[in-house]
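Quick one, tokens below. Sequence please?
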């Protein structure tokens, strides 16, 4: 029977030949891969995540810890992943390598694998962090500003709750109360069992 580890082996074999000679390590998901209460999905790993080969361990990871505290959950209870499993980079004005948003080509390559990952993990709720995973799973026109803090249905029928990306709070502190309010809304929905979407 297929498993998440088998999927990651397949991805490794698929992506390795695409960037010969380039250092583009894949950062896979981690956590409870057996029907977790939540599956958090970000856009792509950053520099720290690539070094440690783990998702959400850099600055945004500290905000993720705050999310877990508000939810009264531990990291090992949930599953955490990204849409794109490589670090998208560009050279900035100072000549240093920096993060960038994933390209359309990268999203097209990785999104089908994300959908398979979700099907294998079987989370009770998907939590998208920012615009990139939201658009990958719902549609390209919707934005996080339109629907943060609300429960939506995905094509597979798995409930999806949209949050701002934890990194956005680092640069826009005014979003912190909004983000925290949305997290508490999610907590209340889960506690009251108001996750009513059924698979089609």
């Amino acid at each position: 029977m297929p498993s998440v580890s088998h999927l990651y082996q397949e991805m490794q074999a698929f992506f390795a030949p695409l960037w010969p000679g380039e250092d583009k390590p894949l950062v896979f998901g981690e956590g409870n891969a057996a029907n977790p209460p939540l599956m958090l999905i970000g856009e792509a790993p950053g520099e720290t995540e690539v070094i440690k080969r783990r998702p959400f361990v850099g600055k945004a990871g500290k905000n993720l810890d705050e999310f877990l505290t508000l939810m009264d959950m531990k990291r090992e209870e949930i599953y955490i992943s990204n849409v794109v499993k490589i670090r998208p980079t560009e050279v900035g004005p100072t000549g240093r390598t920096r993060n960038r948003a994933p390209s359309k080509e990268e999203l097209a390559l990785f999104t089908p694998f994300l959908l398979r990952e979700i099907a294998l993990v079987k989370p009770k709720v998907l939590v998208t962090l920012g615009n990139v995973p939201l658009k990958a799973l719902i549609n390209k026109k919707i934005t996080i500003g339109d629907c943060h803090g609300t429960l939506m249905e995905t094509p597979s029928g798995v409930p999806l709750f949209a949050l701002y990306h934890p990194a956005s709070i680092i640069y826009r502190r005014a979003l912190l109360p909004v983000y925290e309010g949305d997290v508490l809304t999610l907590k209340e929905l889960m506690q009251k069992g108001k996750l009513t979407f059924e698979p089609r």
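The CA atoms of residues 123 and 135 lie 19 Å apart. The first strand starts at residue 30 and ends at 31.
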